[in-house]
Design goal:
The protein is built from 21 helices and 23 strands. It has an eight-stranded parallel sheet, with helices on both faces. It has a six-stranded antiparallel sheet with strand order 15-14-13-18-17-16. The protein has a five-stranded mixed sheet with strand order 19-21-22-20-23, with helices on both faces. Strand 21 and strand 22 form a beta hairpin.
Length: 719
């Protein structure tokens, strides 16, 4: 299954990715920051969630499951409050739009118990309240989107997740908060309510069950531990581990403000519920981790700036604001002097230096500076006119207002046009930058798609777990003689499953199976003959035609096992003993199932071939193989024994003058149905004991002696 996880890497999201990867799913990650790193992902995309490229990512990945980590995504800075709220809401809406445009798969939105704070009104924790309201609004958005589109959108509210943090940035949950307060404030704020913590591995397993469920009844689930402990007991554990008693401040009002609830259902109402960690275990684990690295959980106190620094910062801000106007005033001085010298000049008397001054500033700096230049020019003009006229005469002179109007109109018009040109150029530059960014995004996506296409082609052609490679290797069984197929089947399974210890048992009757082929001594640890029905858990999986996975790590059982059922009944049992725990997942089980099916085809063909030639292989009326058939079988066993794939021993029967037919009928009664009898030539009868070495033939020898026959071990048969 292809899964797109949206969110930056942290303890919770990384654990989700590790679980999905362990189960054999292909995980793609969409993240907004390059500062964090995921392991075990197939491909990662780095874009803002509000980017238009998100729809291209969805089209490229075409995920069967999309997980929006929401409240657990650490890319949002909730100290910025409004900015984070806008980014979160915009990103969620953009992702939902891209998902609905794709129109396939399941969308899961992760939430937490923080939504219960959405109705609170506090001033000290504004960032937390904004976060709670935003996450709560995200839940409502997903619900409304599901109703409007009819798509498979699920909200998962994982409450009070707990894990052992490595530093203060990883601290999460009520217990971690109390520990950090004890270290930094030497006190603990407690609301007096009981604590219920859900261990991270349990939470991830519950999420995975919802992710992979074929169908689900509800659309909003809560994941809780359902195991509580008193807050006072948790504080006692903190005091005991830290070695000192911390004062506790209990809230005066323990009432809880409940928000209007959606149609929420508990996880256990639909899915099997079992937790491996109690709340007490989570508290002790968290406290011990914080105590061990206590220095990493102490916040650094920021020193407040003194008044002098604040005053200097204010002066700096004022200077930066007024510097352009001061520069303008300085530039006005030479133009004022030029204007005074030009008045009355024969050549420069008609030159309007103030108009040039205003136009220069309008062209270079725009309308704002042009307006200020015009004001300075009017002041300079009036001051110069008052050399020869009174202020009243200047004020009532018609030419004064005509000149001022000319100056303002030209200056403001030119400044306005300059500002518009700058704005148009800036818009074009922004559009070009946007298109370049989009082009880079498309190039990145295209490069990723080409790489993935080449990777998929390489997998199809040569990767060990590709269908082509599996078929190529299993088809190699067809080149062996019918007697050799089962021996080399163990080697084929070992290669394809990357397991050194493989054993194949053939079922001899309703209860027992006999070892026929193996790849190591470890693979034989159950013995040469087993009563397979007594292994209840494994046999139950066989009866339901499923692969047995030893999740309980029972040392007396194989790590994985498969029963091959050619005609509905168990014929062969394949056992793998050295599969690592992290590879005991659904992907490996499916691979073993496919390999078993292909191996079964070769075995069935070999058996049918042997049945067809039965009249030619056996002496008439007996189960004694003809000389040529027996010789071929002996050769196959000896070849497999030299390669360490099988074990056998031989006994030559002294028939005391009886015919080979009569002796064969009598000997057949004292050997197993998995053993063979054959004509050695010259009328000599030989018994081949399968999966038995020369030191373990005692029980058969005794039976043969009781039947009235003597025997010897022919050394040449084992060569």
């Amino acid at each position: 299954m292809k899964i797109l996880l949206i969110g930056d890497a942290n303890r919770i999201t990384s654990e989700i990715v590790n679980k999905l990867n362990k189960e054999g799913h292909t995980v793609y990650v969409l993240m907004s920051s390059r500062k964090t790193h995921f392991r075990h992902v197939y491909e990662k995309y780095i874009f803002d969630y509000g980017n238009n490229c998100i729809k291209d990512v969805f089209e490229s990945v075409s995920p069967d499951l999309t997980v929006f980590t929401g409240v657990f995504d650490t890319s949002f800075d909730w100290q910025g409050e409004q900015d984070a709220q806008l980014s979160f809401s915009t990103g969620l809406s953009n992702v939902l739009a891209a998902y609905s445009r794709l129109g396939k798969g399941r969308f899961v939105y992760l939430s937490s118990e923080e939504v219960y704070n959405a109705a609170e009104v506090q001033e000290d924790n504004d960032g937390e309240i904004i976060k709670a309201r935003t996450v709560r609004q995200g839940e409502i958005t997903c619900v409304n989107y599901r109703i409007a589109t009819g798509l498979d959108i699920v909200v998962v509210r994982a409450e009070n997740i707990s894990y052992a943090p490595a530093n203060i940035s990883e601290a999460y949950g009520e217990c971690a908060r109390m520990c950090i307060e004890a270290l930094n404030k030497n006190e603990i704020n407690c609301n007096g309510m009981d604590i219920s913590l859900l261990a991270l591995p349990d939470a991830v397993q519950f999420m995975y069950n919802i992710f992979t469920a074929e169908k689900h009844r509800y659309n909003i689930y809560t994941l809780t531990c359902r195991n509580e402990m008193r807050s006072g007991d948790a504080i006692d554990i903190i005091n005991r581990e830290f070695g000192f008693r911390v004062p506790v401040r209990y809230a005066s009002d323990n009432s809880v403000i409940w928000i209007e609830e959606l149609d929420v259902h508990d996880y256990s109402e639909e899915f099997p519920f079992a937790v491996f960690y109690r709340t007490e275990d989570c508290v002790e684990e968290t406290v011990k981790a914080i105590k061990k690295n206590s220095k990493k959980f102490i916040r650094e106190k920021k020193h407040e700036q003194n008044k002098f620094m604040q005053i200097m910062l204010s002066i700096k801000t004022i200077l930066i604001t007024f510097i352009p106007f001061i520069e303008n005033m300085i530039c006005f001085i030479p133009f004022f002097m030029i204007n005074n010298r030009a008045v009355g000049s024969q050549f420069f008397g008609k030159l309007d230096s103030y108009l040039i001054y205003v136009l220069l500033f309008a062209i270079i700096f725009g309308q704002q500076q042009a307006t200020f230049s015009a004001i300075l020019s009017v002041a300079g003009f009036c001051f110069r006119e008052m050399y020869t006229k009174s202020g009243f005469e200047v004020a009532i002179d018609y030419n004064t207002y005509v000149w001022i109007a000319q100056l303002l109109i030209l200056g403001l018009a030119v400044g306005y046009l300059r500002d518009q040109l700058v704005l148009i150029r800036k818009d074009k530059d922004d559009e070009i930058d946007y298109l370049k960014h989009r082009l880079r995004d498309i190039e990145d996506i295209n490069k990723t798609n080409v790489r993935l296409k080449n990777e998929m082609e390489r997998q199809i052609v040569s990767q060990s777990d590709s269908m082509g490679k599996i078929y190529e290797i299993t088809s190699s069984l067809d080149k062996y003689e019918p007697e050799e197929v089962l021996f080399y089947a163990a080697d084929v399974v070992s290669r394809l499953m990357e397991s050194r210890d493989v054993a194949i048992y053939t079922v001899s009757n309703e209860n027992f199976a006999r070892l026929i082929s193996f790849t190591s001594k470890e693979a034989r640890k159950l013995g040469n003959s087993i009563e397979y029905k007594k292994y209840g858990e494994m046999y139950t999986e066989f009866e339901q035609d499923r692969v047995f996975i030893n999740r309980k790590m029972n040392p007396d059982l194989p790590m994985m096992a498969l029963a091959i059922r050619p005609e509905g009944t168990i014929n062969l049992i394949v056992m793998l003993w050295d599969i690592p725990f992290e590879r005991m997942n659904l992907s490996m089980a499916n691979r073993l199932k496919i390999i078993g099916s292909l191996t079964q085809n070769s075995v069935v063909r070999a058996n049918r071939y042997m049945d067809i030639l039965e009249n030619q292989r056996y002496i008439a009326g007996t189960h004694v193989l003809e000389k040529e058939a027996f010789g071929s079988l002996v050769k196959a066993f000896n070849s497999a024994r030299k390669r360490g794939l099988a074990e056998c021993s031989f006994l030559e029967i002294d028939m005391a003058g009886e015919s080979i037919e009569k002796a064969g009928m009598n000997i057949e009664k004292v050997i197993r149905n998995t053993d063979y009898m054959g004509d050695m030539g010259d009328g000599k009868l030989c018994v081949m004991l399968v999966s038995t070495d020369n030191e373990a033939t005692g029980y058969v020898e005794k039976r043969i002696a009781e039947a009235g026959y003597s025997y010897r071990i022919p050394k040449e048969m084992g060569e």
